[in-house]
Amino acid sequence: MMEKSNDLLATHEIFSILEQSCEINNFAFDQLPYLLIFSDTQGFVVKANSQACEYLYLPRKQILGKPIFTLLKDLKSKDFFFDFFTNRRDQQELAVQTYIDNGEEALLWQIKYIKSDTNCELYAIIGTNAAALKKTYQDAMVKSSTLTSMATLAGGIAHEFNNPLAIIEVSAEHILQFGSENKRLTKHTQNVLNHCRRMTQIVANLRKFAERSPSIETYRIDIGFVVHEAISAFEKQTKEQNITIATALEYGLEIYGNNKDIRTILDELLNNSIYALKQQENTQKKQIAVKAFKQADQVLIQIADNGIGIAASIEKRVFDPFFTTKEIGQGIGLGLSLVYNIVQMLKGETRFESNPGKDCVFTISIPAAR
Q: 3-state DSSP call for residue 4?
């Protein structure tokens, strides 16, 4: 007997993409890591990706136009889909677990009703290997536990360092304020103050990571204006390093958030682009391109540069806290972790594309305010 499962992970990201449009690029459709089928409201297949063809052991032309319950090999799946399309089509989403013929591999079936802007009514049917899904979930739980421990440690370090640094900073400022005829002492005191302020900033970043959440207050903000303000703050630095910033900003694009958190995201990404361009020796014209635009129900921010890019060997670690490829003294590896965390809290997504040695593009996607 098929039973509804309430504690299985749903592939909400895929469904949100499908809800935006019933049209999907064929190449992208075949690259999805899921068995994916579109059917009409009667269960007749109108589109199937390569993973579905492989699972059904049939070429695509023999799948299209056929009822899905006649194509499946295992009886449990046949019975479920026959029952769904004859008796339960009014249900908008289901998550069930079934087994293929050999009884060794579990497949999680999910169904979602999709209606496009052109009133095209379809069902998106996704099949996911349950064993792989379970491993992904377990990996996520281990990572979450590790991050929680690291956040606790970071918070403790920040607390212990904060007071001594404040005392050193105030003392150094007093020495400089009251002056000294000893120029060497003045120079060393200024050096102490500069490094103390840098340590204070590191402690501030540790505190942000320890909190692991954006500011509590959220309100409607115009992304275009916030991006413009952030870029203006970097004008002097980029000019000194002969870096050109090109912008394509749409104004009036609102999200729910706050200026402080969005500025943290932008500052970290712009700083990373500037650092990548400083390391780039293969280009004469150093450029950063910043865009803000809307795509479906998402507001997107893109920051691209023609710097050194990200090596393929470290792509999976770029959002890990305390991971950095920068030289000692240039950063402690919290920037992108903070960005990722803030965007997650805003129910958004952070992704990047990189050509090592040539360029890199970071894209932030956040739900538009309604």
A: strand
Q: Which two tokens stand for residue 110?
A: 């999910």
Chosen CATH of 219-367 out of 3.30.980.10, 3.30.565.10, 3.40.50.2020, 3.20.20.80: 3.30.565.10
Query: Whole-angstrom Cα distance, residue 14 to residue 157?
Result: 40
Strand order in 286-295's β-sheet? Answer: 243-249, 286-295, 298-305, 359-367, 349-355
Output the CA–CA distances (angstroms, integers) from residue 188 to 120, 174, 251, 321, in the order listed: 72, 14, 47, 33
Where is average pLDDT lowest: 33-47, 159-173, 355-369?
A: 159-173
Q: DSSP for 279-291, please give it.
A: H--S-SSEEEEEE
CATH number of the 12-129 domain:
3.30.450.20
Q: How far apart are the first and last CA of the chain?
A: 42
Q: What is the pTM of this model?
A: 0.49
φ and ψ at residue 228, rounded to 5 degrees: -60, -45
Average of per-residue pLDDT across 300-326: 80
What's the mean per-residue pLDDT of the chain? Answer: 75
Whether 50 and 2 have beta carbons less than 8 Å apart is answered as no
Distance of alpha carbon 123 from alpha carbon 109, whole angstroms: 12
Number of Cβ atoms within 10 Å of the Cβ of 197: 13
Per-residue confidence at 12, pLDDT binned at 50, 70, 90? Answer: very low
- DSSP for 172-225, written as a single string: HHHHHHH--S-HHHHHHHHHHHHHHHHHHHHHHHHHHHHHTS--S--EEEEHHH
Return the SS3 of 152: helix
pLDDT exceeds cutoff 90 at 332: no
Q: How is the chain split into domains, by residue range?
A: 12-129, 136-211, 219-367
- Residue, of 125 and 326, whose pLDDT is higher: 125
pLDDT at residue 7, rounded to an integer: 35
Q: What is the pLDDT of residue 210?
A: 61
Q: Taking each helix axis from N to C terminus, what angle separates 183-211 and 335-345, rounded to the nearest 10 degrees?
A: 30
44-53, 178-187, 257-266: which has the minimum mean pLDDT? 178-187
In whole angstroms, give the CA distance from residue 296 to residue 128. 26
